[in-house]
Amino acid sequence: MARRVSSFAKVPEALGAHIDVEELLDLFAEGDARVGNTAFVGLELSYEDAGSATFDTVAFRGCTFDGVDFSGCTFRDVRFQGCRFIRCSMDRAWLNRCDMVDCSAPGLSLLQARLAGVAVSSSDLSYANLSECTVDVLCMRAVRLIEAAMQRTRLKRVELDGCDLTRIDVFGTPLAGIDLSTCEFAAPVLSSDFRELRGAKVSVEQALALVGLLGVTVADD
C-alpha cells in the first residue's frame, strides 16, 4: 500500500447538487435505491432509514445525520467532508473508495461492515464500533478512536498516523504488521495472553508502557 494516501474517493471537486432532500427521502422509501452523481451541502437528516441504498459518486459537505440508519448500504466513491454523525448506524455496510475528512462521528456503528480503500483524516470516531469488520486498505490520520471497539476485526493493509487509540478494544483482532508508533496507544483492551500485539510495531515509549500489562516494572540503569 502506498504511503501518505489521503484520498480514495473518485468524486469530482466540482460535483454539484442534482437531488434535493425530498427526492432523497423518496428514494429511501423505495428501498435498495441508487443515489448517484450528486452532492449534498448542509443536508440535515433525522431518524431516517436509508433502506439499503447504494451511494455512488456522492459528496456530502457539511451535512448532519442524527439517528440515521445506513445499515446494509453501499458507499462507492463517496466523500464526507465536515459532516456530523449522531447516533448513526452503518452496520453491515460496504464502503469502497470512501473518504471521511474533518468529520465528527462519535459512537458511529460499523458492526460487520466491509471497508475497502477508506481514508479518514482529522475526524472523531471515539466510541465507534468497528467490531467484526473486514478491512482491506484503510488509512487513518489524526483520528480520535478513544474507547472505540474493534473486536474480532480482520485487518489488512492498515496505516495509522497520529491517531489517539487510548483504551481501544482490540480483543481478538491481530495487529500484526500495523505501525502504531506514531499513535497514542495506552491501556488497550486485549486478551489475557496479549496475542493481539504480536507482530505490531510500537515505539520504545509504548513498549515500556505495555510492559506494565505484564505486571512488571523496568529497572532504572
UniProtKB/TrEMBL annotation:
It comes from the Bacteria. InterPro entries: 5peptide_repeat, Pentapeptide-BTB/POZ_domain. Pfam families: Pentapeptide_3. PANTHER family: BTB_POZ DOMAIN-CONTAINING PROTEIN KCTD9. This is Pentapeptide repeat-containing protein. It comes from Collinsella ihumii.
